[in-house]
Amino acid sequence: MSDARRHTDAVLLLVAIVWGSSYLSAQTATAALPVLLVLFARYALSALACLGLVASWRRRGARRWTRDELRIGLPLGLTQAAVLVVETYGVAHTSAANAGLIISLTIVLTPLLDRGGHRGPLPASFFAATGVCVLAVGLLMSGNGFAEPRLGDLLMLGAALIRAVHVALVGRLTAGRAIRPLQLTTVQTLVGTVLFLPVAAPDLPTLLHSTPATWAQLVYLALFCSVFAFLAQTWAVQRTSASRASLLLGTEPVWAVAVGVALGGDHLTPLTGLGAALMVAGTYWGQAVERAHRRPPNPRPPSASHPLDKDSACPSTPPPTTPLTTT
Known about the structure:
Elements: H1 3-32, H2 35-59, H3 67-92, H4 96-102, H5 106-113, H6 124-142, H7 151-174, H8 181-200, H9 204-208, H10 212-237, H11 242-249, H12 252-262, H13 270-293
Helix pairs in contact: 1-3, 1-4, 1-10, 1-11, 1-12, 2-8, 2-10, 3-7, 3-8, 4-12, 5-7, 6-13
């Protein structure tokens, strides 16, 4: 393997590790601060970072926001905020390991909602993979035995569904348009900041007096799990195949479990351990079936900029053939 390939693989694995660790970071932050205050801080810090990148590219001659970027960014900002509200409340009421595993259902839910890139109906094997994932969710929710599902697990299940709707909407609204990912992401982060400011405003003094450890978690969620991870993902995907990127980024739920068990004190019972294994297997299987069934991508419009050219740097969503992740 060449040094360039090793470096690219290392970056993709780092992105998967960062995203896998985001659930424990969110859980830790919400233990110290109200959920809506955490969301405001995460959005505001991400917006400041993206605005800084936009200003940097503007000095190099990049054009201003287009009407499409603003018009599409507003509704996508609303759906993205809905995802993070449900997801963050879910993380606060379940284990980091369960959160990372259940949210990976997005991978098999999204093709059911976004049928634009498929050659006819999805094959039966895809629905079999979805069934494996549903069984895995049931085992993860069971904990030490079959009992009433935990609130956090149900919220993460809802977050996976809302995220699938969001990702499908991203594909539908941006198809055939010259949308720069950095500009679109910046609009979304500004929408989230404006949305959460009124509800978080009464608790802002609490945020200002938070401990350095809490601030570290917030900065990690905003700058590393959001801005850095998206930048690194786009850079790496350009230098490898989509299939290889999917394989490496698809290890995210594995890292979520590893971080939750090693650092968060999570415990895997035999039932939840079986559920974790089935979830990883089911999502990999479903992703492989869906990728094989997808039409070749349409040529990019001539006016569309490259994901990491001087007009863009921070994508709002992974490429269609890569895992649809969190954060």
